[in-house]
Amino acid sequence: MGTEKKDRLAAVGPRLRELRRRHRLTLAGLAERTGINASTLSRLEGGTRKPTLEMLLPLAEVYAVPLDEFVGAPRTGDPRIHLKPVTRNGMTFVPLSRPGGTQAHKLLIPPRPDTEPQLSTHEGFEWVYVLAGRLRLLLGEETVVLKPGEAAEFDTHVPHWLGSDDERTVELLILFGTQGERAHLRARTP
């Protein structure tokens, strides 16, 4: 086996540990979700146990990542991401990136004039860019209206709500990352 292949296999354990930490799972919690005992998972992450397909398949399912990500395999074939829109709370999310790390979505929010805004909080950090329409962003006690070409970023621990500011659907590009991962857009002065 070549050095490059050995290096890729040696990197599987640290990748598994990073994914588990990113998903905020304990070894016991992961064992419960995968059916692989915690001791085996610990040895996989530490590199003292070689992974098998039977072990990697449930891990890939829990982490929602392709098997290729475990070994750092180069992408091959069709580079397109097959868009599968999801509708939640009247909003349509179109994923623009693969699972893992910072997520990119196109978000379509139809006007909801009869709906009372329900502010929510969750883990993470969001960056939004208005493509079309007018976005009404409630952020804590403040209300901000953004027009096409404007962007905002905020910690999602702050109570927030996104909606259309008029009778048109608002289209957004949204980047969402775990706490500490920030997407910045800085204007340069001439």
Describe the structure.
- It is a single chain.
- By secondary structure, this protein is an alpha+beta fold.
- It is built from six helices and nine strands.
- The strands form two sheets. It has a six-stranded antiparallel beta sheet with strand order 1-2-3-9-4-7, with no helix packed on it. It has a three-stranded antiparallel beta sheet with strand order 6-5-8, with no helix packed on it.
- Helix 3 packs across helix 4.
- It is elongated and about 60 Å long.
- The C terminus is likely disordered.
Core attributes:
elongated; single chain; alpha+beta; 190 residues
SSE blueprint and pairings:
Elements: H1 3-10, H2 12-22, H3 27-34, H4 38-46, H5 53-63, H6 68-71, E1 86-88, E2 91-95, E3 103-109, E4 125-132, E5 135-139, E6 142-146, E7 151-155, E8 160-164, E9 170-177
Antiparallel strand pairs: 1-2, 2-3, 3-9, 4-7, 4-9, 5-6, 5-8
Helix pairs in contact: 2-4, 3-4
- The rough form would be described as elongated
Number of strands: 9
* Count of helical stretches: 6
Strand content: 25-35%
**What's the arrangement of strands in the largest beta sheet?**
1-2-3-9-4-7
The averaged pLDDT comes out at 84
Radius of gyration: 20 Å
Q: Which blocks of ≥5 consecutive residues have pLDDT under 50?
A: 180-190
Ends: how far apart? Answer: 55 Å
Major β-sheet, in short?
6 strands, antiparallel
Order of helices and strands: HHHHHHEEEEEEEEE
Which bin fits the share of residues in helices?
25-40%
Structural class: alpha+beta
